[in-house]
Amino acid sequence: MGGQPPHCLLHGHGSGVMPRMLGQIQEKNSGMFHPGGSEHTQVPIPRSNKLFPPPPHNPIILLNRNFSARLATPPCRYFPCMSSHLIRARDYPRCPLCQREGRWLYRNLTDRLCGVPGHWNIRQCTNTDCELLWLDPMPLEEELPRLYEDYYTHAPDTAPPRRLYHLFLRFTPIHRQRQRLDAFYLEDHPPGRLLEVGCGSGQRLTHLQRLGWQVQGQEIDSRIHATPGIPIHIGPLDTAPFVPQSFDAVALNHVIEHVPDPIALLATCRRFLRPGGRLVAITPNSDGDGHRAFGPDWLGLDPPRHLHVFNPRNLRVVAERAGLRDIVIETNGARSVGVALAGYRHKRFRKLRAVLFQLRARAEVCVLQATP
Ligand SMILES: [Zn+2]
Known about the structure:
The model is unreliable at 1-32 and 34-84 (pLDDT under 50). The chain starts with 17 loop residues before the first helix and ends with a strand. It has helices spanning 18-28, 163-170, 175-182, 203-210, 262-271, 289-294, 312-321, 337-343, 350-360, and strands spanning 47-48, 61-63, 69-71, 88-90, 102-109, 120-125, 133-135, 138-139, 193-197, 214-219, 232-234, 247-253, 273-284, 308-309, 325-332, 365-371. By secondary structure, the protein is of the alpha/beta class. Residues 95, 97-98, 100, 125, 127, 130, 132 line the site of zinc ion.
């Protein structure tokens, strides 16, 4: 990276700017994700994803914030004239990290969380040292805001506190692992200035504030229900008015799987870190317990919002190409009850089974820790 300013491809850019920006990024950083649909394609080719009834193994179930399911059908299935509501996408056959063609892992998945129309496929890199998962077709960058029109961060969290449940968890072996996740793995780091990138409502930062951190959030989605008392910059990270090298820690909780170019995003985060600062990125682990247990129903796939899904091996490559150092990748399963609630199809004892899943899960998410 040297002294060149890294760029970040976050959604929200106008379509006219895209080809020029993609050109800049390719020129300035050879480690960036390959932006085109093929090696010869610089500009994404718009293509609507196909519309046909979902296969019986994958019914459309919308999940609310508490992961209780209700059956629903996107209106476009019954009104084909609404095809303009489909998400424009492009072919994406090759692994952006090693350029190998991916094999089909899952076909015709639907959006179970927000009901975004369309059917989505997941590819897996055939390089056994990589095995990155990604969406094909890949939504165009200018379409990404439409994937979040009904996202859970737009409404206040009205779920009642489950005091008995949390008291129970205090006496389980996963209590310590839950604490580490809640503190962004910064429990051994002296408090200072903390930036959470893609912070959503900013609710997680209230806990870090109590631990003594001076917190700052950043979020690109202006429709979030912001938490009172948490400063949040609304807008892209690469144009945010933050001073370079001014944060002691930068955290990303379930963010890098949502962006078209995670290497560029981590490189931008690195720019805001002080020497000796800490970057922490938490992301679903495709090698983990949830994917093994629930296959195409695994919440970590979350089509079409999770554009790439990582494992510890390819996450290390992403971090190295972003210029990060002292890379440590751990796994954690202590907050996987929601993943299990969404994964179990039958209601019978679902909550009990989900809690038991969480107690034994060890590797549901990857936790990347690195220095700039
Ligand atoms: Zn690969």
